[in-house]
Specification:
The protein is α+β, with helices and mostly antiparallel strands. The chain has helices at residues 2-38, 159-164, 199-211, 238-247, and strands at 55-56, 60-61, 86-95, 116-118, 127-131, 138-145, 153-158, 173-181, 188-196, 217-220, 226-234, 254-256. It contains 4 helices and 12 strands; from the N terminus they run αβββββββαββαββαβ. The strands form 3 sheets. The protein has a 6-stranded mixed β-barrel. Strands 10-11-9-12 form a 4-stranded antiparallel sheet. The chain has a two-stranded antiparallel sheet with strand order 1-2. Strand 1 (55-56) and strand 2 form a beta hairpin. The chain starts with a helix and ends with a strand. Mean pLDDT is 77; it is low at 38-80.
Length: 258
């Protein structure tokens, strides 16, 4: 009996020792696993290379505030040529047909095969380089007429000039005007008051103007028109003359360069 109790005590001691060892080992493994998840991983010692941002057509990074500023596309024309004095942008049209052979505003006979153009304000004989910004085609014209009188249009080309820059088929197209030569500017201008087919009517108006203190003259064109003019009006007095003539019933005078 005593021997059996001794064996049991040895078995229990060895079994407890094995169980304690297994428990210790299990707990140690569990602690290692938990510590792996509890401790944050260290940051890498090097930075990953930054990939370039994707770009939209035109070089604008994707995701940025891109503005379609097409007006800037033609700014290179400001200094493309050293002889450019001024630049104007807008729409061009062209004319011919029924206007062929008619009198232009400066008194010339219009020929749509010549390289001329109409502009609302540029002095007659101003030399302008017209650029088609889509193709960079250019043509040089001389201003000899007035127009176009349509919103947004800045120049009316002869057919020859329109064909030279490839816009005749379209009729109206965007252009850049490079003013390269201004005519010699005199200190006076010509006011054209009216034009008559009858010389007698022109003479009657001349007498009426003389009674109002105006010294008028009559200019007869090759086409037989008789223009009543105030030939040398100082530039500084043009507006004063304009108001006085409007009070006399002539609101539509034409101011011409000499």
């Amino acid at each position: 009996m005593q021997r059996t109790d001794a064996r049991n005590r040895v078995y229990l001691r060895d079994h407890c020792a094995d169980t304690s060892y297994m428990t210790f080992t299990t707990l140690l493994r569990l602690a290692l696993v938990l510590s792996f998840f509890a401790v944050p991983l260290a940051a890498p010692a090097f930075a990953a290379p930054r990939l370039p941002e994707p770009r939209l057509p035109g070089g604008v990074p994707d995701g940025s505030s891109a503005v379609n500023d097409s007006s800037r596309l033609h700014d290179t024309h400001d200094d493309t040529h050293d002889d450019v004095r001024d630049v104007e942008r807008g729409l061009a049209s062209w004319y011919g047909g029924k206007f062929q052979g008619r009198m232009t505003a400066n008194g010339e006979i219009f020929d749509t095969n010549d390289f001329t153009a109409a502009h609302r304000t540029l002095p007659f004989d101003t030399v302008v380089r017209v650029v088609n910004p889509e193709t960079e085609a250019t043509v040089t014209v001389r201003i000899n007429d007035r127009g176009p009188f349509i919103e947004g249009r800045i120049i009316d080309l002869s057919r020859a000039a329109a064909e030279a820059i490839g816009i005749a088929g379209r009729g109206v197209a965007p252009v850049v005007l490079e003013i390269i030569e201004y005519p010699e500017i005199k200190d006076y201008q010509i006011i054209q008051i009216a034009s008559f087919g009858s010389r007698g009517n022109a003479e009657a108006l001349k007498r009426r103007l003389a009674a109002e203190g105006f010294s008028a003259a009559i200019e007869t064109t090759e086409a037989g028109n008789h223009r009543v003019l105030l030939p040398e009006v100082p530039r500084t007095e043009i507006e004063s003359y304009r108001r006085s003539l409007e009070e006399l019933g002539f609101p539509g005078i034409l101011v011409r360069e000499p």
